[in-house]
Amino acid sequence: xxxxxxxxxxxxxxxxxxxxxxxxxxxxxxxxxxxxxxxxxxxxxxxxxxxxxxxxxxxxxxxxxxxxxxxxxxxxxxxxxxxxxxxxxxxxxxxxxxxxxxxxxxxxxxxxxxxxxxxxxxxxxxxxxxxxxxxxxxxxxxxxxxxxxxxxxxxxxxxxxxxxxxxxxxxxxxxxxxxxxxxxxxxxxxxxxxxxxxxxxxxxxxxxxxxxxxxxxxxxxxxxxxxxxxxxxxxxxxxxxxxxxxxxxxxxxxxxxxxxxxxxxxxxxxxxxxxxxxxxxxxxxxxxxxxxxx
Length: 294
Prior knowledge:
Blueprint: H1 8-36, H2 41-55, H3 74-85, E1 89-97, E2 103-112, E3 117-121, E4 130-135, E5 138-147, E6 152-157, E7 184-189, E8 195-209, E9 217-226, E10 237-239, E11 245-252, E12 255-260, H4 261-293
Antiparallel strand pairs: 1-2, 1-4, 2-3, 3-6, 4-5, 5-6, 7-8, 7-10, 8-9, 9-12, 10-11, 11-12
């Protein structure tokens, strides 16, 4: 039969027939493919369900750890660091009497460290004098201990004072500061009043002491600070946003940096060891003297 001689009705019926045959063939192919498909997907799902069910069987004790994501603002960390360390910052006062008998009072920021030691800028407090700090309405006398070649000075609360009665507390003195370049730098100062200033840790560089006739000596890596203010911050504390007191701030002509607290702590430890050795030596001498007299 020539398709050209078909009527319109016959062409429509032929199209319907072809469509039906095509659909039937496609259905048969799909069914055969499903029958030939792997049978592993269904058992896998079943095993997952079984394991999940086993974990929630009544009677078993399971420890559940819940993780909460908390977003902490840098501003909140700074405020907390200041609050925690504000009682570590003291204002050392010195009474100076001139030749005419007139007295003047000078102020210097300083950090209250362990065992009653106080560290300050060695240019502001450079030698023995009449030093004290105020704890509320109480004047606490301070004794000058020594000036270090790195540029800081150590004072100590007079031995007649009970340290437990002093409200100044060094809560977060860092023995190994973990400061990094680019980290926020918080400077706490008490001169003339308590204040806080923010900047950045800009770099680290060796602190070298030059002694005539001797080789240069590198004492530590100083912490260089980029900050917009210079007035009154020398002798203050460098605090990180983690709340650690990491250094003593020193301001020089073209430089603002911090002496690491771990270096200062080493000096204090050496002084403490020397004091113990001196007491033992005096005790041994006294015993020997008593033996000779006996």
